[in-house]
Amino acid sequence: MEGSRREFLANLAGGALVFGAAPMMFGGGLRDLEAATSAPLGDQFDMSWTSRVTGRNKAVMDVPEVESGYGVWRAGITKGQIVEFMKVPASDVSMVLVLRHNGINLAMNQAYWDAFGVGKEVKATHPADGKPTMKNPALLDGKAGLPAQFDGLSVPQFIAGGGIVLACNLALTLDVVPKFQKRDKSTAEAAHKAAVASLIPGVVLQPSGVFAAVRAQQVGCVYVRAS
Prior knowledge:
Helix content is 44%, strand content 11%. The protein is an alpha/beta fold. It folds into 2 domains: 1-38, no CATH class; 48-225, Hypothetical Protein Ychn, Chain: A (3-Layer(aba) Sandwich). The longest helix is centred in the middle third of the chain and has 17 residues, at 70-86. It is globular. The chain starts with a helix and ends with a strand.
């Protein structure tokens, strides 16, 4: 993500945003930001995931960076450790994974990574050898060549095991949508639909990563910074 976005969000948080300059910061994205935050949440986003946080042991893992996908791995590893060391059944552990900021790229399918050269853009590295990769590391599993001991930690496997994966719509709007809009010469609305369609199946879009993390804590999850 470019520095202008960081500056925009910092100014927004500090109440010092000069709205007249905002469109220059990220190419007219102020309208996209408004669209992402103005409508009632219940009209845009699925909040039913909170009803699935039922385990006696609950944790929300916050992943703001891509790296080698290790933030995603930590969520799976942590669940396994809780089961092993606390001697509880897997059904007694609810894990919520929040993909935000640069980490939004981990929520996207491989077709998106291929189409926009995301691996090179974010300097992604392969989790097994640390070398640069064009693959979304959060999608890699045993079938993709990972050693057996590292299998089972991908986003699809995490979801299949009952994990909840939330993606930040603010990051999607600021960083993913413009790629589709530029390539397809489409409207922001059409580009947003294309971006949402490129999320890994089972990932749940939320207003922002911070909102998702706070909501998870409200239903009893312990917060963990996973990367």
